[in-house]
Structures are given as C-alpha cells and as structure tokens.
C-alpha cells in the first residue's frame, strides 16, 4: 500500500483517480506525466520521454544539474541519474502507454515510490520555483541594478516558468521599485524564445488598449526594444504614442535639468522609440514647438531628446528650425547656468554631421565637442 506521508503531495493528486479505481497501470502513467511536467518546468524543454531525459540531465551540459560535477563521482552521479530517467521512460512508461503491461497494486506501489524518489532528487537540487522568491529579490535593499545581476537571477527561474513570471511582474509594477523590476523584466524578455516574445507582445497589446497606468506603459517601453515596439498591435501602439506625445507637450525643465512636471517623464522614457511612431509628423511638430517656446520648454527637449530628433522621418522638413534653435541655445540669456550648452555638448557627437558643421560655423569651440566613436 502506498505510504501517503512519504509521497509528494502533487504526485498523489496526479495518481489518485486511477489508483483508487485500481487502474494501476494508468496510475503509473499518471505518475510519469507528473514527473515529466516537473522536468519541463525546471529545464524549459519542450521534449518528451527519452530525448527529454537525455537533454535535461546530460552529463555534458545539463539543464538540471544535480551537483557541481567537479569530481569523477559527481560526474558519475549525473550520468547515472540521466540513465535512470531514460530507463523510466523506455522500460516503465512506454510499455504501459501501449497497453503492453497490466500491473497489480504491489508493482504500482513499488514503481510510484521509485518515481517519488526520482522527484525528490531534482527537488533537493532544484527547489520548485516560487514567484515569491523573485519578489524577495526585487525587494532586496542590496539589489544590484545591472544586466549581469539580472541575468543571474533569470538563470534561477525555470525556463518553463519565465513567461508567466514576466507577465506577473507587469501586474506588480506598482508594488516594487521600478528600476529593479525593469532590469529583471527586460532580461526575462530577452531570454524568452521568439514565439514566447510574440505572445508577450500580444498580451501587453491587449493591456495597452485601455491602460491608464503610466508605470505599466513605462515598464513595457523598458522591456521592448525599439524594433519590437513596432510589433505592438496598432490600436494599442497608436493610443500609447498619443499618450507619450501629450507627455511631451506638458514636460518642462528648470535650468538645472530638473523636471518641473512629472507628466513629462513618460516622453523622456520613450524617446528612443520616436523613430518608430505612427504619427511622426505630429511628433515632430510638437518637438519644434517646444524648441521655439519658453526656456523651460527648450530645456526639457535638451534634457531628453537631442540624440533622437534627427532620426524622425519628418525632421528634414523642420531641420533648419531645429538647427537654428540649437545654435541660439548657446547664446540664450536665460541659460545662466549653461545647462543648454552642456546638454548640446553631450549630444554633439550623436548629431548628424551637417548639423555639427553649422554649429561649429557659429561657435568654433564646438569642434572640440566631437568625440570619434
């Protein structure tokens, strides 16, 4: 008789119906399916049977590593465990799937306990993933805002759970420090296979169609590359870009570069996406209006947009106005602290060559601002 106290709770739930009805061969098949699901969750593989065991536990580059594999004994354990999992599929599961074996209760009890033992081996080394553990890491005061650190955290998340984790993080954007969640979410997205990236874009497109949460939009802008932003469904994309243009319209900055209106932060966050906007003309008109308005409007544009303006399709129409605004900024009487000039200096290398030449013609000192890449 099966000792319930020693069985994985999920395993017993998986076999209970078949076992209680004395369908012992099916109970063994159900146990193997549960085992396979756990291997899928940890490894992220979309394989089955012998190929799944071979790839997941390979002694060369295992996706489920049972030890450090430094000594010969450790390597033998990895290799032998792979063989055991391979044998479970070849000798235990497959014959029963093909109705080649009928089992009594004693055989079922023996095999189910052995399957439970194999589950225990991977559970000890690879604790079943908990989303809560990721939340704890994001709340950690010592969280390191770097791609290397985010990449190491992602490695701890089973490949089969990374998509669901990414979706859940977008739902928690207001519960956690934004920069932490942005680093981890971006790395999660990058590590997804292409089909899962497409599915993520579909899901967030639906969210953006009626989104009122600016932090969610900012997070999505952080996650998606400039190229992938173009894949967002049109209704969601146009609506979001209109929201960003309104943010651009309201943004103002003082002479120290501090935002005077938090609504303007969204547009700065989205600046690299400008060349892929649907309504490039309206975007360019708004940028030019800001450049030719008051000092605080111009300072706002200088703060976050100078390296991106020339990449917008309709910029060529307004190019002379933009260049004149850049030149006049060096003599702006309101720029007492030299903020505009300093921002222009920082962006100078990334400006088109023809723009740089016209600026240098008015201010020869600007030639020294160019840093060859």
**Radius of gyration in whole Å, from Cα?**
29 Å
**Mean pLDDT score:** 92
Low-confidence stretches: none
- As a percent range, the share of helical residues equals 55-70%
Overall geometry comes to elongated
- What share of residues are in beta strands? under 5%
Description of the structure:
The structure is a single chain. Helix 7 (147-155) packs across helix 9 and helix 9 packs across helix 11 (214-223). It is built from 20 helices and no strands. With 373 residues, the chain is mainly alpha-helical.
Secondary-structure blueprint:
Elements: H1 9-20, H2 24-43, H3 49-56, H4 72-97, H5 105-125, H6 131-139, H7 147-155, H8 162-171, H9 178-191, H10 194-208, H11 214-223, H12 226-229, H13 234-250, H14 265-270, H15 280-291, H16 295-304, H17 306-309, H18 315-329, H19 339-347, H20 353-362
Helix pairs in contact: 1-2, 2-3, 2-4, 2-5, 3-4, 7-9, 8-9, 9-11, 10-13, 15-18, 16-19
Features of this protein?
mainly alpha, 65% helix, single chain, 373 residues, elongated
In short:
The protein has helices spanning 9-20, 24-43, 49-56, 72-97, 105-125, 131-139, 147-155, 162-171, 178-191, 194-208, 214-223, 226-229, 234-250, 265-270, 280-291, 295-304, 306-309, 315-329, 339-347, 353-362. With 373 residues, it is mainly α.
């Amino acid at each position: 008789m099966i000792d319930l106290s020693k069985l994985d709770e999920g395993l017993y739930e998986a076999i209970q119906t078949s076992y209680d009805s004395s369908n012992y061969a099916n109970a063994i098949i159900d146990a193997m399916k549960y085992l396979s699901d756990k291997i899928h969750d940890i490894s992220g593989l979309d394989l089955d049977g012998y190929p799944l065991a071979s790839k997941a536990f390979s002694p060369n580059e295992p996706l489920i590593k049972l030890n450090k594999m430094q000594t010969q004994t450790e390597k033998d354990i990895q290799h032998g465990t792979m063989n055991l999992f391979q044998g479970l599929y070849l000798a235990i599961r497959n014959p029963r799937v093909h109705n080649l074996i009928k089992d009594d209760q004693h055989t079922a009890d023996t095999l189910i306990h052995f399957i439970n033992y194999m589950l225990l081996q991977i559970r000890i080394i690879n604790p079943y993933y908990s989303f809560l553990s990721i939340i704890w890491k994001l709340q950690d005061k010592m969280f390191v805002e770097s791609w290397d650190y985010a990449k190491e955290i992602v490695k701890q998340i089973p490949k089969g759970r990374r998509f669901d984790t990414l979706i859940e993080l977008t739902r928690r954007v207001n519960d956690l420090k934004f920069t932490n969640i942005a680093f981890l979410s971006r790395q999660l997205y990058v590590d997804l296979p292409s089909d899962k990236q497409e599915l993520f874009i579909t899901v967030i497109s639906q969210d953006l169609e009626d989104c009122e949460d600016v932090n969610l939009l900012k997070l999505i802008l952080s996650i998606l590359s400039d190229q992938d932003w173009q894949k967002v469904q049109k209704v969601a994309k146009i609506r979001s870009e209109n929201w960003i243009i309104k943010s651009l319209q309201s943004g103002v900055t003082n002479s120290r570069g501090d935002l005077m209106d938090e609504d303007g932060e969204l547009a700065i966050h989205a600046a690299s996406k400008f060349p892929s906007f649907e309504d490039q003309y309206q975007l360019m008109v708004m940028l030019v209006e800001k450049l030719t308005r008051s000092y605080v409007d111009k300072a706002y544009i200088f703060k976050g947009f100078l390296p991106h303006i020339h990449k917008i399709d309709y910029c060529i129409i307004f190019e002379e106005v933009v260049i004149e605004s850049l030149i006049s900024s060096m003599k702006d009487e309101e720029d007492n602290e030299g903020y505009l000039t300093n921002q222009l200096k920082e962006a100078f290398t990334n400006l088109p060559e023809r723009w740089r030449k016209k600026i240098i013609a008015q201010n020869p000192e600007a030639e020294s601002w160019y840093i060859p890449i």
